Amino acid sequence: MGPQVVPVASDPTCPPDADVVIVGGGIIGTTSALYLAERGLKVVLCEKGHIAGEQSSRNWGWCRQAKRDPREFELIREALRLWRGMDAHIGASTGFTTTGILFAANDAKKEASFADWVRDAAGAGIQAEMLSGAALAHHMPGDTRPPPAALWCSSDGRAEPQRAAPAIAEAARRRGALILTDCAVRGVETGGGKVIAAITERGRIATPHVVVAGGAWTRRILRDVGIDLPQLKVRASVLRTSPVAGGPTPALWDHDFAFRRREDGGYTIANGHVNVVPIVPDSFRFAFDFLPALRMEFASVRLRLGPRFVTEWRERARRTFDEPSVYEAVRVLDPAPDNHYLAEAFAALQRRFPAFAGARMVQSWAGFIDATPDAVPVISPVDTVSGLVVAAGFSGHGFGIGPGAGHLVADLVTGARPIADPQPYRLSRFFDGSRPRPMAGL
Ligand SMILES: Cc1cc2nc3c(=O)[nH]c(=O)nc-3n(C[C@H](O)[C@H](O)[C@H](O)COP(=O)(O)OP(=O)(O)OC[C@H]3O[C@@H](n4cnc5c(N)ncnc54)[C@H](O)[C@@H]3O)c2cc1C
């Protein structure tokens, strides 16, 4: 079972029409709803399960610029600016706080690559630095085996995933958006090359705009309108601890573990170097596209053949709008966590930081990260279907960039000046021969 998420009640009625229908109530769908509703549009957000039921409540909660792909610099810089003002803007708490984030550099090669990154980021207005010795110890008190150096981004922060998207959804509702939960979108009705309606399990909503922010389901949704989005899933596991007195405030990634302090005094902990990739029918379909990513993450990838193969094979079957969809069959995608890797990470952390010695693992869970071949999201209109916008493929770092992405979605739908150059996020890069490659990975 996933973590406990602040509940968001559904609005009772499904309207016959809307200016925009948003598919998916994660951080991307809810921020899109907020910024679209603020522009006076009639917005309906449809979530098949509950708000933030999938990735957006299961993540580490890191809102980081550190170690980002340079193609995301402008958008993440803006996203952090939005996070800093978010609580005041929506009149509710997302738990966002600026704490700084550290990435350990355990060898000279990594140190040199982080130092290069620091220079590139400075050119984009993101301040970061390399730390070592006493300066590093200041941020990681109690570390008995500190790394030789670390990348430090002091303006990075964290928010609380179990209440950020719910708080933003409620704020969108206060601005006039309708929030429908337990309301799957079965498909998008098109005609004459444009969006006509969203077909939900509660009825048809006539609309000229649909935003697909369906996370790991986005490929399945787009396939029905003839778009072959290259997207695969990575299973990532997390544990949370009982409260820890005297633990570090900033978040840290190191080879064996990654952690961040939670508002409840415990920590969210993960294994720093394991990415479990289930083998599914699409693994073969996209083997070539994902080869550069596989090479880049080779040491951390654990390929697994299991029941997921059959599940996704079955989910491929086409259904009519009158039949219950695969989305209704799986209200919340809730994979079992890889507790073995989590136990390794927790033990390594306890050996290194005595403050964690008495902590207990309270809960563990997993989520499916939706990844693209270049590990950069798609935030883009669809050239072949006017009115259709995709915002997915956030490749393991969409929570932090969420408000920036939601703002960009609203800009694309309304034709406003974009908050950041949308060019790196265009869908067409996968079909026009660009063959984009990963630069920073998940
Ligand atoms: C373990 C883990 C750790 C992570 N750590 C971080 C981190 O520290 N920092 C960071 O920035 N990112 C992190 N990420 C990634 C981040 O969580 C995601 O990139 C982000 O939450 C994606 O948001 P989303 O709204 O696109 O997708 P989701 O949160 O997955 O939301 C998609 C929603 O769409 C709904 N949906 C799908 N199909 C339909 C349909 N047909 N009808 C209606 N609803 C539908 C789903 O039910 C789901 O709720 C992590 C992810 C995981 C799994």
Automatic annotation (TrEMBL):
Cited InterPro entries: FAD-dep_OxRdtase, FAD/NAD-bd_sf
Example GO molecular function: D-amino-acid dehydrogenase activity
Pfam families noted in UniProt: DAO
One Gene Ontology CC term in the entry: cytoplasm
Statement: the UniProt record of this protein carries the keyword Transcription regulation: no
This protein's UniProt keywords: Oxidoreductase
Similarity section: Belongs to the DadA oxidoreductase family.
Protein name: Glycine/D-amino acid oxidase-like deaminating enzyme
Record organism: Ancylobacter aquaticus
